[in-house]
Structure prediction request, 78 residues.
Amino acid sequence: MDLTFWVELVFFVVLMGFSGFFSSSETALFSLDSLQLDQMRRDGNPRIDLIEPMLSQPRRLIVTILIGNEFVNVAASV
Prediction:
C-alpha cells in the first residue's frame, strides 16, 4: 500500500471523529434541561458560562452544528 492510501485513511478517520464531535455535541447540548443547568450553576461548574450563551440562541447553535457536520461529511466523501 502506498503513502497516499494511508494519508487518505488518516484524513477520513479524523473527519469521522469531527463528525462524531458535532453529532454528540448536538445531542448533549439540546438534551440539557433547566434542572441540569440550575444544578451546574449551583455547583459552580465553570462550563455553565460557555453553555448558557450558546443555548440562549438555539437556532444559531443548531445551524452552526449542522453546517459543521455537513462540511465534515462532504469532505469525508470526497
